[in-house]
Amino acid sequence: MPLDRTELENALRRVLTARGPDAPSYAVVAPVIWSEAGASLLLEVRAAGIPQAGDPCFPGGRIEPGETPAQAASRELEEELGIRVRPERFLGQLPTVHTILGRRTDVFVCTVSDEEAAHPRRNPAEVSEVLRVPMSFFLSSPDADSYPAEGHIVWGMTAGAIRHLCAAWQRAGLPC
Predict the structure, then answer these.
(1) pLDDT < 50 positions in the chain
(2) What is the DSSP letter of 66?
């Protein structure tokens, strides 16, 4: 039995709305670690069984109802790596990423202590591995499309955020 016009329009409306203003929004945080060896970025590798398994990325996830993007990024950092950094301690925000699927991701930068980074309490349901990559590695190719790091390829939205962070790093005159 053929669908009527209203059913067809409603089906199309659901798909179009999912990619428009009602699309899910996400927030991630790029943790910077200061140590005597220099600055590093803390990345996580997504666990098996979740979307984009095996991909290195920053801690983050969906913004829940009633949360600000910064609150979501803070919550996700704690849920995924057991590191608690309140949004008030964030250093700032990188450009928001808009994907071709209509999703929006807000990207924040924070600092974590060398000790916190040395002993993260990763959530094995979400994180298979934690990477600590020197900023000097990223700054050696600040405009790269992807970064081969510790046996993984950092690409896509995460690589884009790193490029923006490298540009900010250089504008601030920070050492490699």
Answers:
(1) 18-19
(2) T
User: How far is the C-alpha of 139 from the C-alpha of 153, rounded, in Å?
Assistant: 16
Strand partners, 44: 57, 130
Dihedral, CA of residue 6, residue 10, residue 12 and residue 13, to nearest 10: 130
Q: Quote the mean pLDDT of the chain.
A: 89
The rounded distance, in Å, linking the Cα atoms of 139 and 66 is 37
Instruction: List Cβ neighbours of 23 (8 Å cut-off, separation of 6 or more).
Output: 101, 102, 103, 104
Distance (Å, whole) CA 8 – CA 42: 46
- CA dist., res. 153 & res. 155, Å (int): 6
Residue in the block written with tokens 């970025």: 41
Can you give the pTM of this predicted structure? 0.85
Distance from C-alpha of 117 to C-alpha of 81, rounded to nearest angstrom: 9
Helix, strand or coil, per DSSP, at residue 5: helix
The rounded distance, in Å, linking the Cα atoms of 58 and 46 is: 9
